[in-house]
Amino acid sequence: KLNQVLRKPLKMKKAIKIDVALQQVYEVEIQDGLQAIYDAIGNGCSLMERAGCIPNDNPNSLGDDLYVDEEGYIKGEDYILGGFQLDLPNCSKEVLANNGLILGANLEGESCNCEIDVEQIRKNVKFFVKR
Length: 131
What we know:
- The protein is of the alpha+beta class and 131 residues long.
- Helix content is 15%, strand content 40%.
- The protein has helices at 2-6, 34-41, 118-124; strands at residues 12-19, 24-31, 48-54, 61-69, 82-86, 96-97, 100-106, 111-112, 125-129.
- β7 (100-106) and β8 (111-112) form a beta hairpin.
């Protein structure tokens, strides 16, 4: 019984990944925790930054956050797989290096399921290929 009490069920969150290597946008499910976000961004990400907040109509939400690898340009050209630009209000207009991940944020500022539709991201993303 103690093992049942100590084992919490894993809480999964719906996110959207902007994958520069595949040049695709798709839904993923990730676990709670910072490491799960790093792993979902991929490419050895160990430091992330918020590159924008996409507002939504949910009164229990602060909007959806776009996260990227903060060291994308710092680690040098060999580290960069490609880039993307997301043409949505409140998102960085710069070309962002490597993958992006969109997660929701609740009123406490914790990450949760994203609200935006994956099709809206697909329509507004532009990929850049590394030369």
